[in-house]
Amino acid sequence: MMKCGDLKSMNENQLFELFYMDVKPSMNPPLMPKHHCDGLKAFWRERFLNAFYGRTEPLSYMSWGEIPQMWLAGYNHAKENQD
Question: 2, 54 in Cβ contact below 8 A?
Fold first, then answer.
């Protein structure tokens, strides 16, 4: 699990905005709107912040919690290779 100390140079809100730009409609849970709206953004922000701070997702959200975890791992890997 990635910790927020590993992610240099950007704060959690900046990272979330980058992550949210990468969220595709097909990644949304069933019955959620397929377009970007405030409720959908709040859903993904919660998933992202849980991943960012290493919090465990509720069981019903586990599969969607993996998406920001993988994104953060990729971001951290790219930053390490850049430095």
Answer: yes
Distances (CA, A) of 60 to 23, 30, 56: 19, 12, 11
| Joined tokens for residue 80 | 């390490």
Residue with tokens 């990468």, as numbered in its chain: 22
One-letter amino acid at 48 equals: F
| Maximum C-alpha span of the chain | 41
| Per-residue pLDDT tens digits for 8-38 | 678 899 999 999 999 988 888 888 876 778 9
Which token pair is 12? 């959690």
| Dihedral angle, C-alpha 30, 45, 64, 60, nearest 10 ° | -80
* pTM of structure: 0.82
pLDDT, tens digit, for every residue of 33-72? 767 789 899 999 999 999 999 999 999 999 999 999 999 9
